[in-house]
Amino acid sequence: MLVCSPLAALAQEKNAVALEAHADPALWPHAASPAAMTDAATEAFVADLLGRMTVEEKVGQMIQADIASIKPEDLLIYPLGSILAGGNSSPGGDERASAGKWVDLAQAFRAANAQRKGTIVPLIYGIDAVHGHNNVVGATIFPHNIGLGAARDPDLIRRIGQATALEVAVTGADWTFGPTLAVPRDDRWGRAYEGYAENPEIQRAYAAPMTLGLQGDLSADSPLAAGHIAGSAKHFLADGGTFEGKDQGDFQGHEREMIDVHLGGYPQAIDAGVLSIMASFSSWNGVKHSGNETILTDVLRGPLGFDGFVVSDWNAHGQLPGCSNESCALAVNAGIDMLMAPDSWKPLYQNTLAQVRSGEIPTARLDEAVRRILRVKVKTGLFSDERPVEGRLNELGSPAHRAIAREAVRKSLVLLKNEGAVLPIRSGARVLVAGHADDIGQASGGWTLTWQGTGNTNADFPNGQSIWGGIQEAVAAGGGQATLSPDGAFTQKPDVAIVVFGETPYAEFQGDVDTLDFLPTEPLETLKRLNAAGIPTVSVFLSGRPMWTNPEINASDAFVAAWLPGTEGGGVADVLIGDAAGKPRTDFNGKLSFSWPKDARGEPLNVGQPGYDPQFAYGYGLTYAQGGRVGVLSEESGVVGEIGSVDRYFVDGRYVAPWALMLADAGGQNKPGSVQAETSPRDAVSVRPVDDLAQESGQQFAFSGVGAGSAKIWGTPIDVSRQANGEMALSFRYRVDAAPASSVALSVGQGRVDMSAILGAAPLGEWRSLKVRLSCFRDAGADLTAVDTPFQIETAGALTLSVSEIRLAANEGDAICPAG
């Protein structure tokens, strides 16, 4: 007789779940696009237009290309239906291009499309305006959604949507990929800050106001009002529920959890008339949503009653079984109406056309998809030449929009601790401001001018104000004195110190972490020095998720979770700095929409789950009117051992676990690459430390030319295929100290590229930076799902090469594929 233990039964149940990714429409709630989306006049116009289009023109409507990979003149040949400006795409590849250049780009594409022969259908031009029109210099950057969730204010969300729509429309785009309705359930996910809350109640409250703010009300008699744009609820579905918070990962759970948690605000967005929905990269029990007909068709077109079109995410169709970026009938037949094919659009168009002609994609399915796209184009007003707000660039970063953003900052701040009523700070006080208070880029986070939000300076935000700027202004107005000192040093003892610190910008891929431990030590050291000097301290923590910061909280008299507030740093000062008498000018309003962890391990911590035991619970937030005592928190992180890194290999002069250096010669003789290792004149390669960004932050490899040698970083295999799909790059600094005498190869895994020309042309003794796209190594034969060597330099000749800061980084238009 077999006895099934409870553990075995649980494993058996999980195995059963893993086989199930089939949605039952009868279980799902009901919603419906407004009748105004499918009014008789619109449907008649669409039917007539569809009847006049060729199959080539119809297929073109289903393909979307990125502006980095298409030129306006291409539209004279290819009848595409859509373009987008992806996270790192911009006019002429200049991320800091003027707003006028964005207008010129939109007009150039529209003009070319209008000159094409045949049936002319306007383009729909989409962009990721996820916290304001975050792609354009001078635009208003609102707090990221995690902060807006703490505000608990649906009307504020509507006004933010309205302001964002106007700023997008004035630069010529028609469509934004938002609102984001993810319900993040694991804060280790790098996109957690794009979700309003861990509890779907806030998504349900915000989905309709944001949709209506962006689009306005749909009308049967007219298109969207001037200054409004089409929205796209995303990412359908459960992108916030992936196992261990892995981006583009797998939601492993029952259909009931999908409905109760991750459906979140989609019914409300559909009821409000959202014109498009973006399908998620992620999977349900191993089946990608982009190919799951039961989700995209049976549910979305059934009980959810959605009449707009579905667009896929960035080359997501290429992840489906039997598909590639250049060919995927499965996605279309499952219910994807428009394929986002940023760089693969040309072969995808040809292959999709062939699949329609062969019957692999039925003609009825083609017509259905195109009908939905044309319907949305009619409702968006694209068939009219009138663009009454385009070019009104004074609307970018306007005082009215900045006022809304400043209000959003005020309302999003969450007060976690305020011992001894150190807050509010008397405006006439002597205030020391330390840390990263004068960095608008850090306060804005990812998806700001660049995809990852990196490389920005305050000059890139001409209409913005840093947190330091806001504090300085408020203190000066009250007759006090504010001093900026990033390291916290001072000559005259201040009355109080404000220390601003937190996460540096990141977006998807780069943002995924293994734990929630806040690792930088400098802020804590600064706080402790100030404590030792008897100075009251206020911490302002910038982050895209709750993090384990118990040591920093213990070292602070007051601790404020400011999230990623954007360009209106004055909103922080509005709450922290009181009047001349020390009375509040504005009280704290924010309440946690994500539970704050008690340890750093990072397992899912969500209100209502069994064993729920946070440090600060969902809904927590102190105020001046109603304070509370925190006491001393445990400083046991709960993390055992060192966590491995997927994207950092050699940083600050050390190899990041699990990575180590290995030196090898042509005979296959390997030895650890220690600078203490014994070397001889006959060694193919040796290594020694050198100075770059700091003392001994780099290493110099001397290839003797005695025989072929290599220096490689080696460790446990990792999967960087997602990063390659997102056009991430291998980034490093290098200095040629002795020119190569023979060819030099750079490898990731089994993929090799020729570095001879680059290294041969480099000035001797000069540090330079280089980014090589991961896709180059994939195309050269690397299996990026199992990379055990993320960096390797090989040559048979003499070469002396120094390197430092080896990591993955975003391609901000500066990554290359080396040519031999």
Please summarize what this structure is.
By secondary structure, the protein is of the alpha/beta class.
Please outline the major beta sheet.
7 strands, antiparallel
Structural class: alpha/beta
- The rounded distance between the terminal residues' Cα atoms is 68 Å
- Overall geometry comes to globular
- In total, the number of strands is 30
* Poorly predicted residue ranges: 1-19, 673-681
The helix tally amounts to 22
Portion in beta strands? 15-25%
**Helix-residue proportion:** 25-40%
C-alpha Rg, in Å? 27 Å
- Quaternary structure type: single chain
Compute the average pLDDT.
93
Describe the structure.
This protein is an alpha/beta fold and 820 residues long. It is 27% helix and 18% strand. The chain has 22 helices and 30 strands. The strands form six sheets. Strands 18, 19, 22, 23, 25, 28 and 30 form a seven-stranded antiparallel beta sheet that branches. A six-stranded mixed beta sheet has the order 12-17-16-15-13-14, sandwiched between helices. Strand 20 (660-665) and strand 21 (670-672) form a beta hairpin.
